[in-house]
Amino acid sequence: MTINRDDAFDALGQIDAASRRSSLLHLYQRAAPHLILWGIIYALGYGIGQFRPSEAALPWLVLVPVGIVGDVLIAQRDLRQAKTGGSRWGLWFGLTATLVAFIMATKAVMAPSDPRAIAAFIPLMVAVGYIVLGTWTGLRLVFIGVGLGLLTLFGFFVLPSLFMIWMAGVGGGALVLGGLWLRHA
Amino acid sequence: MHTPNEVIHQSLRLRIMAALNALPAQEYLEFTRLRAILKATDGNLGAHLTTLENVDYVSVKKDFAGRKPRTRIIMTDAGRKAFAEHVAFLRTVIDDHVFQAAD
Questions:
Q1: Residue of B17, B28, B32, B37 for testing the chain A interface, max A β-carbons within 10 Å
Q2: What confidence score (pLDDT) does residue A63 get?
Q3: Nearest by CB: B93 against A5, A18, A82
Q4: Is the CB of residue A83 less than 8 Å away from at least one CB of chain B?
Q5: pLDDT score recorded for residue A108
Q6: Which pLDDT belongs to residue B42?
Q7: Which of these, A14, A119, A147, A150, is most buried using a 10 Å CB contact count?
């Protein structure tokens, strides 16, 4: 068997392309259930906020911990299926804690008088997170982030009185659809 | 001294091995997903997987997910080793040529 330099270049190119695509689809598969989970949480949290505006923050006190526990359970299931013992809990815990601390600090510093402001700020932060992650990994996450950001801004500025229900239906729906889109990539 | 691996070097088998090697160790890949990654046909992919299975580079597992039958593939330790050696060989071919050109 003779393999010359051109054959070797071509083979390494094929390996690189297949590896990239495999890694990307693996990432999409892993991310999909998390997006669907948070889409449902958005729908519940903002939906309750629309109909009980005076208690809009209360459901999130339950829903956010439920979402984090759900994320952990999904990640554990993935690790069991992969039969890998290694995990990066410290990294994910650090990122989550940093994000939560940043949102709380921003809320304290900016002290928004309109509760919709913080209700819009959080999904905008999440949208930025998807865009940044997608820039490094896969374009679908970028599209989902851009979509979520634009829908949030549209609801905030164009539909102020319906913002919460808009975020419940369209924002939550966008995440669920985004998750399904990733799962079927 | 690395030598070419004739089983792996065939184009589709090379890409099968690359796709499996990109996953975490001991992680299965579903046949349908592998087919999507490689844009291969069922018959062609199945035939090449059989070739790789016969030399113990991959293991094919058939089971049910709920009521749906599914076929999953995993790269064996021997497969990972052989793939790594073949990639090292390919790099050697390129490096040697560059070295000769520099002379």
A1: B37
A2: 92
A3: A5
A4: yes
A5: 87
A6: 94
A7: A119
- The domains of chain B, with CATH numbers, are 6-102 (1.10.10.10)
> Is A81's pLDDT higher than 70?
no
Check CB contact of B29 with chain A, cutoff 8 Å: yes
Cα A68 vs. chain centroid, distance in angstroms? Answer: 12
B27–A83 CB contact, under 8 Å: yes
Return the pLDDT at B37: 92
Which helix (H) or strand (E) segment holds residue B68: the answer is strand B68-75
User: What mean pLDDT do residues A82-93 have?
Assistant: 62
Bridge partners for B63 per DSSP: B70
Q: In terms of pLDDT, which residue wins out, A122 or B11?
A: B11
Do the Cβ atoms of B90 and A8 come closer than 8 Å? Answer: yes
Q: Which residues pair with B61 in a beta bridge?
A: B72
Of A158, A88, A99, nearest in space to A123 by CA: A99
Question: Does A87 contact chain B (CB < 8 Å)?
Answer: no
The predicted model gives A37-63 an average pLDDT of 88
For the residues of A98-134, what is the DSSP string, one character each?
HHHHHHHHHHHHH--SSHHHHHHHHHHHHHHHHHHHH
Which ranges in chain B belong to alpha helices (H)?
A: 6-9, 11-21, 31-38, 42-54, 77-102
State whether residue B61 is helix, strand or coil: strand
Between B78 and A183, the higher pLDDT residue:
B78
What's the CA gap between A165 and A171, in Å, rounded? 9
CA–CA gap between residue A19 and residue A15 (Å, rounded):
6
Contacts of B97 (CB under 8 A, 6+ apart): A4, A5
